[in-house]
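Reopening this one. Same input as before:
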Amino acid sequence: MARSRSLGILELERGLPPGAPRPHPSPGSLRHPDTFEYSAIFETVPGAWVENVVRGDPLLELPYVQAAQRLVERGAIAISSNCGFSIRHQAAVAAAVNVPVAMSSLLLIPTLLRQLPPAAKIAVLTYDSSHCSEDLLGVEDPTQRARIIVGGIEGGEFWQNELKRPVPPTSVASIEADVAACVERLRMTHPEIAVILLECAGFPIVAPAIRRLTRLPVYDIVSLCRATVAALG
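Same output, byte for byte:
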């Protein structure tokens, strides 16, 4: 693994005992060795649990910045994260390191809106829609904001598991069922949906299935990471 080609990924706490092995990563996940054509290195952000990252704890900003700096010291040529809600720390991390920073797939929203016809809409599939607030979407124009349809999987098995300590694995089939059901609900109400954006970094493992089911473009954090590193040559 070439030090000069490492993607640095900031991770949430999982509550595993010291030295305990992680569950085997699913294909398509940020940790799976075949997801990227280059190495990925990881740093856990101390104190960053799903519940306080999702709701937006300002005390996490410094731990995010310091963990990103450690990744750069280890050779990361770009920085990302495994939680879309960490977009709240995008500006602080980008200001603190000298490499490209793409903390969340939500950064793609303004670009995707401009790629589509004016009547088309984007479905944002999130871990928790009740906390996916307006400031995270990066769109201030009310006309453009009306084109963004947000839906979440709160209450499902994956949502519940991610709040436990340690965090237990959730089957790919269960995540796919939750995401597919949410997409179906949104499309029934908004047939103008032309693109799907997966906020949650746990969702890329089901992106191929959602593309097959919907026959729509599906973007996620893996898409953004690949584009970011590819731009570096």
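So the earlier flakiness isn't reproducible anymore. For the record, The first strand starts at residue 6 and ends at 11.
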